[in-house]
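pasting for ref
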Amino acid sequence: MAAEHSTRSDWTDEQVLALVREHERLVRAYLRSMGCRGDRVEDLAQETFLRLFTRPIEDRGPNGLRAYLCVAARNLYINSLRSDASKPILEELDSAWGEFEGRDGGSAYLDALRGCLETLPARTREVLQLRFGSEMSRTEIAARTQLSLGGVKSLLLRSKESLKACVERKLGEGKIGFMEAVQ
């Protein structure tokens, strides 16, 4: 059927239904073979066919169509797994941000951080400013400061650990929820 039509817009409802009937078992079986279960199989199968009918693809015959459907199904499944994996992280960040803000909108943390930054050597403050203030890459920072790339990475890691410990001391807490959640 795919070889007969170069665009999806000229397909009749009957042709669309015939294509879905012909390939839906393949798509569902492929999703199940990757570990997809339950309602997610149905949802992703529908999304796979929706993608086929809403995005232009090159006509490569029946085998090309089957390959396209499997690749589309796989990508949709992987994206759904990524989305599921990020939900607990986002919930944790929300909770940590609420803790960070506290009653004073986070100003105690920020005041402690500013004070701790002042205690760092000038070169360390410069590297932190370049990385987080100017959003430079580690490679750009290395070239600008004449440090090795490994040296920049190490300096950033040590300075973040030092700042975290300093802020914890200033606030008299055993941990910093937001800082731990974003690391």
